[in-house]
Specification:
The protein has 220 residues and is an alpha+beta fold. It has one domain. It is built from 3 helices and 11 strands. Strands 2-3-4-10-9-8-7 form a 7-stranded antiparallel beta sheet, covered by helices on one side. The protein has a two-stranded antiparallel sheet with strand order 1-11. A two-stranded antiparallel ribbon has the order 5-6. It is globular, with a radius of gyration of 16 Å.
């Protein structure tokens, strides 16, 4: 599978803290170290914007990260907690097959599947049946994550469809799918950076993406 490994995905977007609390957000410092541009929703979106987190290799090179838009979601603890309206944009650096930062192995090239996997795993972080205890949730999340990983490897097949959305004003075809938890999409920007996104309560059909001119505008 030409995507980031599941080990890399330990830093997948949307990693939360305690139940009922928003995901831990980092400062803008990590974003400023990225050698690639960050993407977010374009200027047509006028709601809140916020930082989430970035993931770096062992050598400190930033590999991917995400930015939030809308109402900051929380980990579900009760019925109705899924009502937050949000969209998270994942930016994944375009990278060829390369050695791991610690010299112990080889990392696969990043592709659209990488963005699909990170978006899918990010959405799962905020959605599980409210009645589950911690033990059952761990098992459920493991199973669902494996399924998301497999689906990300098949972005050209059902249940994925194609959705054309603007990226800096240029129409781009994205792979798109819906689930009971929300929606996920993934594609590549004209500059080669891969874009993933996931959300709930906001229609994906009306979204547009753009390079973030100053990532510091997302810092609360």
């Amino acid at each position: 599978m030409e995507t980031t490994s599941r080990a890399e995905a330990d830093g997948a977007p949307g990693t939360g803290t305690a139940e009922g609390m928003p995901a831990t957000r980092r400062t803008v410092d990590g974003y400023l170290k990225a050698p690639f541009p960050w993407y977010g929703l374009d200027e047509a979106f006028t709601g809140p914007r916020w930082l989430m987190q970035v993931t770096a290799a062992a050598d400190g090179t930033v590999q991917h990260g995400c930015t939030g838009h809308g109402e900051e979601p929380v980990l579900r603890v009760a019925e109705g907690d899924e009502k937050a309206r949000f969209a998270v944009v994942v930016t994944v650096a375009s990278s060829p097959t390369r050695g791991s930062g610690d010299g112990t192995g080889v990392l696969e090239a990043t592709t659209v599947s990488s963005a699909a996997w990170l978006a899918g795993s990010g959405l799962l972080t905020y959605t599980w049946p409210a009645q589950m205890d911690h033990v059952l949730r761990t098992e459920w999340l493991s199973q669902q994550t494996e399924a998301a990983f497999a689906l990300a490897d098949e972005v050209g097949q059902a249940p994925w469809s194609t959705l054309s959305l603007p990226v800096d004003g240029v129409p781009v075809d994205f792979h798109y799918r819906e689930s009971e938890f929300g929606w996920i999409l993934a594609g590549s920007a004209p500059d080669g950076v891969h874009i993933g996104a996931y959300g709930r309560g906001m229609s994906a059909y009306g979204l547009g993406f753009a390079v973030i001119g100053d990532i510091r505008t997302y810092e609360a």
